[in-house]
Amino acid sequence: AHLDRIGAVDGAINAFLHVNTDEALLVAAGVDRARADDEALHPLAGVPIAVKDLIVTRGQPTTAGSRMLEGWQSPYDATVVRKLRAARMPILGKTNLDEFAMGSSTEHSAYGPTRNPWDLDRIPGGSGGGSAAAVAAFEAPLALGTDTGGSIRQPGAVTGTVGVKPTYGGVSRYGAIAMASSLDQIGPVSRTVLDSALLHEVIGGHDPQDSTSLTDPVGALVEAARRGEVEGMRIGVIRELQGEGYQAGVLARFHESLDLLRSAGAEIVEVSCPNFRYALGAYYLIMPSEASSNLAKYDGVRFGLRVVPDGAPTIERVMGATRAAGFGDEVKRRIILGTYALSAGYYDAYYGSAQQVRTLIQRDFAAAFEQADVLISPTAPTTAFRLGEKLGDPLAMYLNDVATIPANLAGVPGLSLPGGLADEDGLPVGVQLLAPARQDARLYRVGAVLE
Length: 451
Ligand code: GLN
Known about the structure:
The protein is 38% helix and 13% strand. It is an alpha/beta fold. The protein has a domain at 2-227: Amidase signature (AS) enzymes. The protein has an eleven-stranded mixed sheet with strand order 1-3-2-4-6-5-10-11-9-7-8. Bound molecules: glutamine (GLN). This is Glutamyl-tRNA(Gln) amidotransferase subunit A. It comes from Arthrobacter echini.
């Protein structure tokens, strides 16, 4: 059914870069599903899933949305993919993204933009626009994304889906092509809070192959999503993440969510996180710095694209020609920014101060979580913008991440869920919940009440 749906709508949406038409594999998983008496069968067995094309999969290509990896196949599975296979979840295909996950609109993909199923002239968010659009358009019931500064949550917000960035270290990053290693996290994309909890339990938990993996067990997330209760909980509204720059229809739906929580017995308090105003600036130094280092491996020698220019094929010339041809403009912009910020003489002024801001943001969160069990804000300041609208203005594009970035800088978990449609344009609005590190269960407990 999902392959049929993809065949019918993906020509217009372009959520998939690769579709796995290996029916035998899909059917085999379905047959397992039918053996319902098998106690060992996972509840998601047989449920197909789409995987963001930044996560490596054996037997299917992985491009990272870049010409640099066109046609490349990984010799191994990411840990999360291995876990999907162990749960007998067929992998439906690989989804579109901004090149190397750099972007907020999926327009920076080397394979053409993904379109928002709600309005094909609008962006589906980014970088994980393919995963969110696939789930929103019923091409896949579930998907995996990666979130470095909001790439699971912001696409969720603008496509009316649920997206979760787990606690940093809660889900293994082994096999996720690194963008900014201290910020990256893999997480679920779904249509309901419970579905994300089910998937989160499959992919979470300790992995010795990821040195930043937490050793705690993944926690009772499904139980929290089933329980859905906020009686006596304190929910903190972040003062700095509302007001100026936020669309009226986004704020209206956000305030309705607060009313809903209040009527379900939660106490709504206001918290202040004054250093969040520096989060965007710190992120756009730390993220390009780490990316410039992580992307140094695309040298035309080890794997992926190799361009040999005319004349003497020296290592520098092959490397230069390969990187000039293989990377798109946004990736080049960030590599240049990152290498500049890390260079001797500028390191302390840029990278060093960004790291200090990061500490201040962590302290803001710590203080806020003394006053509230869960924090809440709009996920993105606006609903989906039009394709091309912000393409010529990188700063305007970066501003869309203002509410999602603090969680990555502090390593805390976040969940975005649909809050209804904005009056002015009829497009989905996202509401974001944030919890202290390792308290991902709280997101599901509160999210289930808002759904
Ligand atoms: N939109 C943000 C960026 O461009 C976040 C990307 C991400 O989370 N991968 O960096």
